[in-house]
Amino acid sequence: MTNEPGFRMVVEKLKQQFEGFLKVFNVTLPAAQSSQPRPSTVSDLNEPPLEIGNELLITDDLVKLQKNLMNARGRVVIIDQLPANDFEAIKASAFGIQVNVNVKTARQMREAYIFREQTSTAV
Fold first, then answer.
1. CA–CA gap between residue 93 and residue 95 (Å, rounded)
2. DSSP reduced 3-state for 104
3. What is the pLDDT of residue 77?
4. 69: number of Cβ within 10 Å
5. For the chain, percent helix, then strand, then coil, each to nearest 5?
6. CA atoms within 13 A on the CB side of 58
7. Span 89-114, pLDDT tens digits
């Protein structure tokens, strides 16, 4: 008799490695798709969560959209309010700077902040 729990663990590990290999070449198996729950979109996996108190970096893109932030480039604001739906603006502020941005822009600002923090601590 084989060691069933150990055998299942090895088979599961091989399955994960094989699926990872297929993802490199953008190939998916129909059985692999049905056996695992899929998120709503693939980009959701890479996006940072937005929560009250998160820091957002004011980037060049935001300054181009809102000219009143010209002197705030590179500053950090903190999320004060999150809307109940994705159609309303996220409100963030710090040190007299107030920003109202949509969810997509807020995610980009959050990613920029995280990237800046990771690169500044790596040096």
1. 7
2. helix
3. 93
4. 18
5. 50, 15, 35
6. 23
7. 999 999 889 999 988 889 989 998 98
In the block, tokens 């603006």 appear at 89
- 3-class SS of residue 51: coil
Q: Which of 40, 62, 38, 41 is nearest to 111 (CA)?
A: 62
Contacts with 98 (C-beta within 8 Å, 6 or more apart), sequence order: 77, 91, 92
pLDDT grade for 67, boundaries at 50, 70 and 90: confident
d(CA 19, CA 35): 12
How far does CA 98 lie from the centroid of its chain?
23
Residue 78 reports pLDDT greater than 90: yes
Predicted TM-score (pTM) of the model is 0.59
